[in-house]
């Protein structure tokens, strides 16, 4: 994973999700922080898992890999529940990440005060100002292809609200999204919720929206207690 | 309200995925929206159909599915779409629409726009013949480029693998139900119908996704039910489409034959391909050896040894 002071919101969330997932499966692992992880990963996707000489990138690929080795968190679920879980993962992975990207790269103040500094922090001048600029151009193109470039901050907030509402409704008063046992969807959810709660941004509307859903926040605290207190 | 959509063909009320979704959704709640078959996408704000023009002239035309559903909910009809859902069902509906958009839709795009054979045989020809001359070139290029950008760096097998998984997920989710959330249609049903119906109805030369879809009988049944209840075609349209069918069939069988022919020639050329390089290499070696020999004799390098032999 990247260094803590360099990682952006969604990257940090994904790294945390993978750590949570590996802790849930109680597999042994070491966390290494590398400033150039973007370039270690063959396809630029982080986090990456390294086992001997195999590199696996991205949350889903890691979960698949672990599944193929015979370790899974979903054996107790019915097929319909697995379908729902996949849908949830995809919603967090795509919709919520796009919201986070939008805030970090599109919102001018956030970009100037947070994203640019963080992303460039590990490089020397002039790279520290050139690389964030190039990355921003790339991300904005991606957003335009998704028809997100014309969205206002309020509309983006609505999208975030939709994700939180859906997840909060499914969580209800249960311990995890699908009952008493954790799944990979919970790991991903925890990664993103924890990041959103703890992040400090000039723009607070996404975090404010999240605060309306108290069961999501309690869920995050509970998972943190259980898996990250040593 | 006016709903502008692409014209109908192949037994579908409209050929395009999102046009179908808009149309199915408006029919499911029996909305009085006026359907206009149009081939003028430049009139829409984002240059794409479908588009919903509102009655009061000032409101901007809507091209976003979620916004369209909101309008349908608010327009005061007897049947309100998604009204009887519990919060959890609504949550699952949101999650699923996102899942389908990222797992199934890329494969549909790939099948119609990125697969060269399908694109050349069906998609390009259809759109080119419905739009007028210089504009159709521009529009097709624009839309194809956008589709390719949306597919990103993923390769064909990854896209298809995701889609197969999505189809299986959908099939288990549907089970033996009539619709995805019990007995009443929802906006999710409209979305699924939009993705699946073109795959089932449009004949294509490269049909891996179609074959996979036909292997899920409950999804096929679902598409048939929705189209017969909500989107029946009029007699005239059926007749018109019937008259075109022969032309399409001949195009597709021709494309398939071409594909086979290309495959066999490729195989034979591969068998042949080994020979020329080998032959060329031998000829080249002989030529090079001969030349160096001539050079050596000419400069007198070999002459010395020859004379020595004679002397002995």
UniProtKB/TrEMBL annotation, chain A:
The keyword Protein transport applies. Gene3D superfamilies: 1.20.1050.10. InterPro entries: Glutathione-S-Trfase_C-like (IPR010987), Glutathione-S-Trfase_C_sf (IPR036282), Metaxin_GST (IPR033468), Mito_Protein_Transport_Metaxin (IPR050931), Sam37/metaxin_N (IPR019564). The keyword Transcription does not apply. It is found in: Mitochondrion outer membrane. Pfam families: GST_C_6, Tom37. GO terms for cellular component: SAM complex. GO terms for biological process: mitochondrion organization; protein transport. Residues 76-230 form the GST C-terminal domain. Coiled coil: none annotated. Keywords: Membrane, Mitochondrion, Mitochondrion outer membrane, Protein transport, Transport. Belongs to the metaxin family. This is CRE-MTX-2 protein. The lineage of its organism: Eukaryota, Metazoa, Ecdysozoa, Nematoda, Chromadorea. The gene is Cre-mtx-2.
UniProtKB/TrEMBL annotation, chain B:
InterPro entries: Glutathione-S-Trfase_C-like, Glutathione-S-Trfase_C_sf, Metaxin1/3, Metaxin_GST, Mito_Protein_Transport_Metaxin, Sam37/metaxin_N. Keywords: Membrane, Mitochondrion, Mitochondrion outer membrane, Protein transport, Transport. The keyword Nucleus does not apply. It is found in: Mitochondrion outer membrane. Residues 86-247 form the GST C-terminal domain. Transmembrane segments: none annotated. GO terms for biological process: mitochondrion organization; protein transport. Coiled coil: none annotated. One of its GO terms (cellular component) is SAM complex. CDD domains: GST_C_Metaxin1_3, GST_N_Metaxin1_like. Residues 253-274 are annotated as: Disordered. Residues 255-266 have a biased composition (Basic and acidic residues). It comes from the Eukaryota. The keyword Protease does not apply. Belongs to the metaxin family. This is Metaxin.
């Amino acid at each position: 994973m990247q260094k803590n002071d360099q990682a952006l919101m969604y990257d940090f969330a994904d790294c945390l999700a993978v750590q949570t997932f590996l802790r849930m499966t109680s597999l042994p692992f070491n966390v290494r922080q590398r400033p150039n992880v973007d370039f270690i990963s063959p396809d630029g996707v982080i986090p990456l898992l390294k086992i001997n000489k195999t590199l696996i990138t991205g949350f889903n690929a890691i979960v698949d890999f672990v599944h193929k080795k015979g370790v899974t968190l979903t054996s107790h679920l019915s097929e319909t529940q697995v379908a729902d879980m996949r849908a949830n993962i995809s919603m967090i992975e795509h919709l919520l990440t796009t919201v986070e990207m939008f805030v970090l790269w599109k919102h001018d103040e956030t970009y100037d005060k947070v994203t640019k500094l963080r992303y460039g922090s590990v490089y020397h001048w002039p790279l520290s100002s050139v690389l964030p600029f190039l990355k921003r151009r790339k991300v904005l193109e991606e957003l335009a292809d998704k028809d997100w470039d014309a969205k206002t901050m309020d509309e983006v907030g609505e999208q975030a609200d939709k994700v939180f509402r859906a997840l909060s409704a499914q969580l209800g008063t249960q311990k995890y999204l699908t009952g008493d046992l954790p799944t990979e969807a919970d790991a991903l959810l925890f990664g993103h919720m924890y990041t959103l709660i703890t992040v400090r941004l000039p723009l607070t509307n996404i975090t404010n929206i999240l605060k309306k859903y108290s069961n999501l926040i309690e869920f995050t605290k509970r998972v943190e207690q259980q898996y990250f207190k040593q | 309200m006016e709903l502008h959509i692409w014209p109908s063909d192949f037994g579908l009320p409209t050929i395009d995925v999102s046009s179908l979704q808009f149309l199915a959704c408006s029919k499911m709640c029996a909305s009085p929206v006026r359907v206009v078959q149009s081939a003028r996408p430049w009139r829409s704000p984002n240059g794409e159909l479908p588009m919903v023009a509102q009655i009061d002239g000032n409101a901007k035309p809507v091209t976003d599915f979620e916004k369209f559903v909101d309008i349908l909910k608010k327009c005061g009809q007897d049947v309100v779409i998604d009204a009887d859902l519990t919060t959890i069902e609504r949550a699952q509906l949101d999650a699923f629409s996102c899942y389908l958009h990222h797992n199934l839709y890329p494969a549909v795009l790939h099948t119609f726009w990125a697969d060269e054979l399908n694109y050349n045989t069906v998609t390009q020809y259809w759109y080119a013949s419905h739009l007028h001359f210089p504009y159709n070139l521009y529009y097709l290029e624009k839309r194809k480029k956008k589709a390719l950008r949306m597919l990103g760096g993923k390769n064909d097998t990854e896209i298809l693998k995701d889609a197969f998984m999505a189809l299986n997920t959908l099939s288990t989710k549907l089970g033996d139900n009539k619709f995805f959330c019990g007995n009443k249609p929802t906006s999710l049903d409209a979305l699924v119908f939009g993705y699946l119906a073109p795959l089932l109805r449009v004949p294509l030369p490269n049909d891996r996704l179609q074959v996979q879809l036909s292997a899920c009988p409950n999804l096929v049944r679902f598409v048939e039910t929705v189209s017969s209840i909500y989107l029946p075609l009029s007699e005239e349209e059926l007749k018109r489409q019937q008259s075109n069918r022969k032309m399409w069939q001949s195009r597709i069988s021709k494309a398939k034959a071409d594909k086979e022919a290309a495959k066999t020639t490729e195989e034979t050329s591969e068998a042949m391909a080994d020979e020329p390089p080998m032959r060329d290499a031998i000829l080249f070696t002989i030529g090079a050896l001969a030349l160096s020999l001539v050079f050596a004799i000419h400069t007198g390098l070999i002459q010395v040894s020859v004379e020595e032999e004679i002397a002995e």
